[in-house]
Specification:
Layout lengths: L8 H34 L6 E6 L2 H11 L13 E7 L2 H14 E3 L5 E2 L14 E7 L6 E7 H12 L10 H41 L9 H8 L5 H9 L4 E3 L7 H6 L5 H23 L6 E3 L2 H13 L3 H13 L4 H13 L10 H4 L1
Parallel strand pairs: 2-6, 7-8
Antiparallel strand pairs: 1-2, 3-5, 4-5, 5-6
Length: about 350
């Protein structure tokens, strides 16, 4: 127990009851924490932190010393077990709350939504507080839900003693209020921006699926959605048929910077790039694979040959080919050898007619 803490007989009685309950409280903490984590995981809700603790004897002693008369029985102390969920966005607080309502019994008389109190200097205390009980019964426990910014602000306030015994001059209180207001605005704006961007991504995905590709700017998100349409599958099948090869899936996202370097600005540009170069890409693959017994290809083969053809058609030469290999394979001296081999194999193909060896170097 904390040094110099003096409890009256009622406080001592409550403290002894706490000690008797401690194994139960520790089991409650483990079970409540596990239930909430599992439910959040099943719903696909990612939070920045979940904290769960059983109040220490020292902490309880201090509480009982100050206001032990307030509690008739140990059951009246609702925060012997405390949980805190910290989310990234304000709207996720409500999502966590909805899950808590489903998996726990909520004591609505004791619960409070401090976000609705609208106190000017209370940003860090704008948590949603539920007093809960497991569906199977047992002691009550406290569940706090707040955003990361609210949690950081609350920690800062506590650290610098804003709520301490020393009276803070009005000029500093005003600064706290201004900062709290700014953080609250930032909190709301992050949630609003996420909603706007989510709607934008859905709109873009809809445009991709509907075939309105020229209206879709090329980006990581849109290229990923475009890949869902399997735009390289037909060419991959043709290339794989040369040796009856098996095609195994790999990510094609490393090719995005290559496509951007070609000046392709929209998904429509990528589609046109495929249509204009597919036959030449097939011929290049045929010239290379026909003399081998390679029976397994990556799903990026079609896109790689398309890019090789594009570089060759646009007089990228040895340096252009090496740069392409450096981007998709990682920088290596061996990429220069690959570039030389590719130049040699491509020289006899129809799309290389009119290009001299010097132009390609």
């Amino acid at each position: 127990m904390r040094n110099n803490v003096k409890l009256d007989p009622h406080g001592e009685e409550l403290m002894q009851r706490y000690r008797d309950l401690l194994p139960t409280l520790e089991g409650l903490a483990r079970e409540a924490d596990g239930l909430l984590r599992q439910a959040l995981r099943e719903q696909g809700i990612y939070v920045t932190a979940i904290e769960c603790r059983v109040k220490t004897e020292q902490s309880l002693a201090g509480k009982l010393e100050l206001k032990g008369a307030k509690y008739k029985t140990i059951d009246d102390i609702t925060d012997l077990v405390g949980m805190r969920v910290i989310t990234f966005y304000t709207d996720e607080v409500d999502k966590v709350a909805a899950i808590a309502k489903r998996i726990f019994d909520i004591d609505w008389k004791e619960s409070v939504d401090k976000r609705k109190l609208h106190q000017l200097d209370a940003f860090g205390y704008n948590s949603l507080h539920f007093i809960c009980r497991l569906k199977t019964g047992g002691p009550r426990f406290e569940l706090q839900m707040r955003t990361a910014l609210q949690h950081v602000w609350s920690t800062i306030e506590h650290d610098i003693g804003y709520k301490g015994a020393v009276k803070i001059p009005n000029e500093y209180k005003r600064q706290f209020s201004r900062l709290a207001g700014m953080l609250e605005l930032i909190d709301d704006e992050f949630s609003r921006l996420r909603t706007v961007l989510t709607d934008y991504r859905r709109q873009i995905q809809s445009l991709v699926k509907s075939g309105q590709l020229s209206e879709v700017p090329l980006s990581a998100d849109t290229f990923r959605s475009y890949l869902d349409l399997k735009p390289f599958e037909r060419l991959n099948r043709r290339i794989a048929a040369v040796n009856q090869a098996e095609v195994y899936p790999v990510s094609m996202m490393p090719f995005l910077p290559v496509l951007e370097s070609f000046g392709l600005d929209t998904i429509g540009d990528v589609q046109q790039f495929i249509e204009e170069n597919s036959e030449d890409a097939y011929q290049l693959a045929l010239s290379q694979l026909a003399v081998t017994d390679l029976d397994i290809l990556s799903s990026s083969a079609a896109l790689q040959y398309l890019c090789l053809v594009y570089v060759l058609k646009h007089n990228g030469g040895r340096e252009g080919l090496k740069s392409l290999y450096d981007t998709i394979n990682g920088e290596s001296d061996s990429n220069a050898i690959l570039a030389d081999m590719m130049l040699e194999q491509a020289e006899t193909l129809p799309f290389m007619k009119g290009k001299t060896h010097e132009e390609s170097m």
